[in-house]
Amino acid sequence: MFKLDSGNLTGKCLISSPYMEDEHFGRSLIYICSHSKDGAMGFVINKKIREFSFADLASQLPIKTFNPEQNIDLHQGGPLERIRGFVIHSTDYVKADTVVIDNNIAISSSLDIINDIAFGMGPRDNIIALGYSSWRPHQLEQEIINNDWLITDTKPELIFRTKDEDKWEKALNEIGIAPANFSSFSGHA
């Protein structure tokens, strides 16, 4: 059991319960970038945006014309402020606005990182997320007690190098849970 004010979920991932049917969070893997007594913030990292492309985003920003060598995906970071962009990325790229979460992962939200990604000068690994997810004080802890979320350590392989459609199930498997065998029973001590 974790203490409510310890902030120990910062840098962890939340795996949605197999029984969660929420339209935003069902079958989600969420990277938690901040957790304290004041609440929590994170990003869904396994759901691509299909109706809006990186080229669409670039056309709305002061980014010069470019022809990316590879497809650059956008992700649904969460239901809040969907027009606000964040980049979850490897720590080989750190600028003035970058918040380093741990040795492997950082968060940036400047136009510079989007521009650098567009021209192949950004971080080695990255996920561009539009929007974010947040929880008010004690809300996330209660959802964990209610078995809405499971917790796993963050691994760059899972975050950046696993196909989005495989991340949720792979995260469950890494903590020893087969989604087909998940029980909705929860006991109380």
In short:
By secondary structure, this protein is of the alpha+beta class. It has helices spanning 54-59, 111-118, 139-145, 156-161, 164-174, and strands at 12-16, 29-36, 39-44, 74-76, 80-90, 99-100, 105-108, 126-135, 149-153. Helix content is 20%, strand content 29%.
* Uncertain residue segments: 1-5, 185-189
Strand percent estimate: 25-35%
Q: Please bin the fraction of helical residues.
A: 10-25%
Class based on secondary structure composition and strand pairing: alpha+beta
In round numbers, the mean pLDDT is 85
Measure the end-to-end span: 12 Å
Helix segment tally:
5
Number of strands: 9
What is the H-and-E element order?
EEEHEEEEHEHEHH
Q: Sheet with the most strands?
A: 9 strands, mixed
Global Rg: 17 Å
* Oligomer class: single chain
What is the overall shape?
globular
Describe how the helices and strands are arranged.
Blueprint: E1 12-16, E2 29-36, E3 39-44, H1 54-59, E4 74-76, E5 80-90, E6 99-100, E7 105-108, H2 111-118, E8 126-135, H3 139-145, E9 149-153, H4 156-161, H5 164-174
Parallel strand pairs: 4-8
Antiparallel strand pairs: 1-2, 1-9, 2-3, 3-8, 5-7, 5-8, 6-7
What does this 3D model show about the protein?
With 189 residues, this protein is an alpha+beta fold. It is 20% helix and 29% strand. It has five helices and nine strands, in the order βββαββββαβαβαα. The chain has helices at residues 54-59, 111-118, 139-145, 156-161, 164-174; strands at 12-16, 29-36, 39-44, 74-76, 80-90, 99-100, 105-108, 126-135, 149-153. Strands 1, 2, 3, 4, 5, 6, 7, 8 and 9 form a nine-stranded mixed sheet that branches. The longest helix is centred in the C-terminal third of the chain and has 11 residues, at 164-174. It is globular. Mean pLDDT is 85; it is low at 1-5 and 185-189.
